[in-house]
Amino acid sequence: MRICPIASGSSGNCIYVGSDDTHLIVDCGISGKRATAGINSLDISMDDISGILVTHEHTDHIGGLGVLARRYGIPIFTTPMTADAILRSPGIGKIDPCLFNDVSPDVPFMIGDIEINPLRVSHDAIDPVAYRFKSGSSKGAVVTDLGFYNDYIVEGLKGLDVLMIESNHDINMLQVGPYPYPLKQRILSDKGHLSNESAGKLLCEVLHDDMKHIILGHLSHENNLPELAFESVRAEITVSDIPYNGGDFPISVAKRHEPSLCVGF
After folding, report:
1. How far apart are CA 231 and CA 233, in angstroms?
2. In the chain, what are the domains?
3. What would the pLDDT profile of 37-61 be if each residue is shown by its tens digit?
4. What is the model's pTM?
5. How far apart are CA 163 and CA 207, in angstroms?
């Protein structure tokens, strides 16, 4: 399998997840043109995409969904409440309701040779989920837009080869930054976003010796820096007493506006 961030950040998200035979997109919050160019850069045609998995209805995750749906007729997989919110969203244009396929948290389903398990997360959206993937012995997950984690999330993320996890903000940068106070409180709330520190602590719960790679994603442009996210997360892992002996931790930071390192596993 491969996980390849096409774009990741508070301004737009689009992630490729696939096997040799099945090609998927998680969210499309960038323009259809950028998404298509990003997929093509992986030597994959948009005509080969078997489905778009939507985590929630915020614009930075669905902004380009309508274009791809109308142009390519790609099936869309999301929860019924999120589908309803998307169909009522004024900014993405008309989408044929027949393209939507219902998913439910903790109910695995198959697309091609990939098993997908939606995981419920806490965020200020109507019915947000993250996604865990399995194809053969390969296991990965894409988990962004969650205000906190609990035992349920930890259990859902154990045993992975590759994990893309949100590392949205540095708490100090957010607190002293220009955002209005209500927005700061929203980001810091249980329905907001994971800080660098929280992402590192979550990783300490799920790391194991056979994990191949960690991707940090959904960084805030105003309240984080790639090098700060990397160092903060690595510091949390380094000082923790965890059964992980990887030495140089395999961590990369997803880029905001262009395709990032494509991680195979």
Report:
1. 6
2. 2-105+113-255 (3.60.15.10)
3. 999 999 999 999 999 999 999 999 9
4. 0.95
5. 10
